[in-house]
Amino acid sequence: MSRVKHRRAWSLALALQSKRRALARLLLFGSLLALAVPRPVSDRVPLGEQQIVETANRQVCVHTLLENEVQEAKIKRSLVLARELGAATIVQFFPWAYYEPQRGRFSWDGADRIISHANRQGLRVIARLGLVPEWARPNGADKPTTLNYLPAESFDDFARYAAAFARRYAESVAAVIIWNEPNLSFEWGYRLVDPGAYVRLLRAAYGQIKAANSNMLVLAGALAPTLEGAGSAAGLNELDYLTAMYQDGAREIFDALAIHTYGFRDAPAAEPAPQRLNFRRAELLRDIMVAHGDADKRVFVTESGWNDHPRWSGAVRPSRRTAYTIQAFEFVAANWTWLENLCVWALRFPADLLSHPDNFTLVSADFKRKPIYYALQDYARGWERSETPWLPPPVAG
Questions:
Q1: N or C of the chain: less Cβ packing under 10 Å?
Q2: Shortest CA distance to 226 belongs to which of 198, 271, 259?
Q3: C-alpha–C-alpha distance, residues 155 and 130, integer Å
Q4: Half-sphere exposure of 300 (CA within 13 A, CB side)
Q5: CA distance linking residue 361 with residue 370, whole number of Å
Q6: 152, 260, 239, 255: which is closest to 198 by C-alpha?
Q7: CATH (residue range 3-35+51-380)
């Protein structure tokens, strides 16, 4: 298979990874609705004393997945691990469908627990918003829709939810991300992706969020790395998608750009190119921002990392994954002056998925810290490493 075909396969594999993450969310959705119901006081886990994050590298950030964690003790334990890692910032998903199960009736208990524990651990919270409740999407028997399907007539409803979230957590959440990977068909409700429609959603949300809380940062995009071309049923590459966003007038309706950049099998310093998926592909998106007069805006990498699954085509060896992760942080510290945070996907999953996404985590579902956790902790907290991680020779081809 040619290198181009390999890269296309990795592109589709990344989209499949996103689908599997969402499938896990959907399978758990029924039981997770219980998170919206207030629990008896006796069942609550004490917040404990106020903590601070000891870190020497504030760009270090982790993506947590606590929306699917039913036990509050595990929520707290996960956030303690994030703090002890030396990650001053987390990205956390707050699904609309969980917190507004009926139109106009909000139930914030689940979000309150996560944010309260995160704040008590001294963590800065970036909130990702998405996932559509049933009442906000068409769901006829002849045309069922997924939880990622947001019709245009519900854009204002989503914006109202985002504004209510920004108002409630004005003192405890730093930024909100509007949607996730809208350049992938799956994340757009299995429709052809539509940058113009996303810009209209962003415009509706931005206005209402700023009216509710003028200090809340609004992050656009969370764009996925992919090589898909125009008209593809799978999505659209993020370079063309971002360009189309600017052409549709997005510049004035977001405060910073959120992007996803994975390394796959390339080293962090490998040169970027439009037909190549690697870590420095983020620089091509930054070039588009600069070309459209947005050089002063910050960029947040809200998902990134390498995978060390032994049977996934996009993975590397565990030692190489560790080395590349540390090298990536060192590279951005030296070169990406425009980057606010580099967020590793992901801290841990509430349950093992029994597939290659498990090998993106720093901590296992049963809270075992992996060697990569300790290596990143050394870097984040400025501890001197006893030795450089062993780096195996490059794989031919």
A1: C
A2: 259
A3: 11
A4: 28
A5: 8
A6: 152
A7: 3.20.20.80
